[in-house]
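DM from R.C. (forwarded with permission)

"hey, sorry to bug you on a friday — could you get me a structure for this? deadline for the figure draft is monday and I only need the backbone to look sensible"
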Amino acid sequence: MLMDALKPKIAIVGAGNVGSTFAFSLMISGLAREIVLIDKNESLAVGECMDLNHAISFTHPTRIYAAGFEGCKDADIVVITAGANQKPNETRTDLVNKNVAIFKEIVPAVAKQASNAILLVVTNPVDILTYVTLKLSGFPSNRVIGSGTVLDTARLRYMISDYAKVDPGNIHAYIIGEHGDTELPVWSNATIGGMDVETYCSEYARQGNARNELKEIFVKVKNAAYEIIRLKGATNYSIALSLVKITRSILRNENSILPVSTLITDYYGISDVCISIPSIVNREGVKQYVKLDLSDEEQELFSHSANTLKAFIKAIDL
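My reply, with the result:
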């Protein structure tokens, strides 16, 4: 991807809570010189762009405008946030049929205009829709990425840091699997300052039984989105900044290791499903994924998560 005077260019499909907050975060970051908002509600997209443009003098020189799918042309990354919103008490997988139908309209239109772009899928259920996007676009798997468990992992690190009273940057721990109810923490690889996370918490946190506390932290992580939706109706800030991190990793060729949703082949015997695992992300998209040394229990949980997703995918008419 060659960067001209108006590059990098990011197209955002969906100007709702997540799409507009990402556009705002992206504008502040200075990563993009051109941001395009695309939404079936054209007035909404135009209004969001007006509001963003009025703040340009406080940030970085950026061209921000609304368009139809033709706005995806020459984009480096197309971020898809459009779809039905998750309602209180509704699981991510409850959204499957509604959002697959929407993606059957969106993805071919995007792929036609942005044949060289990287597609970043955010809409839930993100792993299933990443797979759907891969099949509908015909793009190579490295250029179709789901936001996956990047946010779940950030939530885990924050909650552990709050419990252990250390900087989240000193915590290395991943959530993998489905971005949803079957996701799992990889405790066998989790560390704080180079120490096993449970050992560190037992010796330095001194707040009761560390193993039980960490289990409770994971439950809170898994249910965090449901709680936020119950309290305020939607999640937007943290996912927007997660997308900025993924976008930065691509545009700046950072080779960051992020648990994005990507197509796997023979990962602990599992193939043909998009699921979140730590992956090297750079200008190619997903350069390669990392095979973690999972415990026997974690392998079983990961297999269950993957098979749950595959069951939903099997029922989809592609």
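R.C.: lifesaver. The chain is about 40% helix and 20% strand.
me: no worries. The domain at 9-146 is CATH 3.40.50.720 (Rossmann fold).
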